[in-house]
Amino acid sequence: MAVRKLNPVTPGTRHRVVTSFDDITTDKPYKGLVTMLNKNGGRNNQGRMTMRYRGGGHKRRYRVIDFMRDKHGIPATVLTIEYDPNRSARIALVEYSDNEKRYIVAPHGLKVGQTILSGPDATPEVGNTMYLSDMPLGTVIHNVELYPGKGGQMARSAGASAQLNARDGKYAIIKLPSGETRMILVTCMATIGSVSNSEHNLQRSGKAGRTRWLGRRPRVRGVVMNPVDHPMGGGEGRQSGGHPRSRNGIPAKGFKTRSRKKSSNRLIIERRKK
């Protein structure tokens, strides 16, 4: 994969940088794994706005992704590599030997026609899913389970990967993409390799309208609001706004919001980098 900088034919293409779609093999998703995706525009079930600056955007259909990889011992063949509008990574349609089809998050280097496997019999090759207890130390992994049997929750976005550093009793020591090092039970599963579309962070939209297509509305800074609307609002002219904080008054830039009594604190060996 590579990135392309477009010629400045229009103001919208002057600064636009896009990733190539060379790795994508089809533009039509498998209908059996596509469902309707309802929009909420940042509203909850009472219709109240709980997340600002959300709404609009292009209509999408949700691809049902298999984060569990729970068909152990049954080989699957990669049929297609596809674009997914609901995530930054590419997805792959695989067909198991019992003719069942599923979508998975495509790792970097996965090719059409390749065979993948999950379970205790799998080998540490790209696309295979294994228990942390069976992996060689130093393996680069993604789609990592946090709790056994719950499905992969960590390192799922484009270009993300974690690393298995060590094992200590019933725990494996994993270094996460954020830089945090923590312990996870060795009975959890993870997929070998890093996530595809690693150049995703190099993209530039080029114009505000493309951001609107993604469902994001314009964001208003707190310092330009009135005092009734934000703690940093008000003042004559361009005032600094005081200490940076959220609309609810919670300080930003260094203020810790994680609970000191959280049960998983004991599993974190090294916190993420500031």
Q: SSE layout and pairings?
A:
Layout: E1 3-5, E2 17-19, E3 34-36, E4 61-63, E5 76-82, E6 91-96, E7 101-105, E8 115-116, E9 129-131, E10 140-142, E11 144-145, E12 152-154, E13 162-168, E14 171-175, E15 181-185, E16 189-192, H1 208-213, E17 268-270
Antiparallel strand pairs: 1-2, 3-4, 5-6, 5-8, 6-7, 9-16, 10-13, 10-16, 11-12, 13-14, 14-15, 15-17
Q: Would you report the number of β strands?
A: 17
Helix amount:
under 10%
Main structural class: mainly beta
**Largest sheet features:** 7 strands, antiparallel
At CATH level 3, the topology is OB fold (Dihydrolipoamide Acetyltransferase, E2P)
Poorly predicted segments = none
Following the backbone from N to C, one meets helices and strands in this order, namely EEEEEEEEEEEEEEEEHE
Q: Strand order across the biggest sheet?
A: 9-16-10-13-14-15-17
Oligomer: single chain
Beta fraction: 15-25%
Q: How many individual domains? A: 1
Number of helices: 1
> Any idea of the CATH class?
Mainly Beta
Per CATH, the superfamily is Nucleic acid-binding proteins
Terminus-to-terminus distance: 31 Å
CATH architecture assignment name = Beta Barrel
As a whole number of angstroms, the C-alpha radius of gyration is 22 Å
Shape: globular
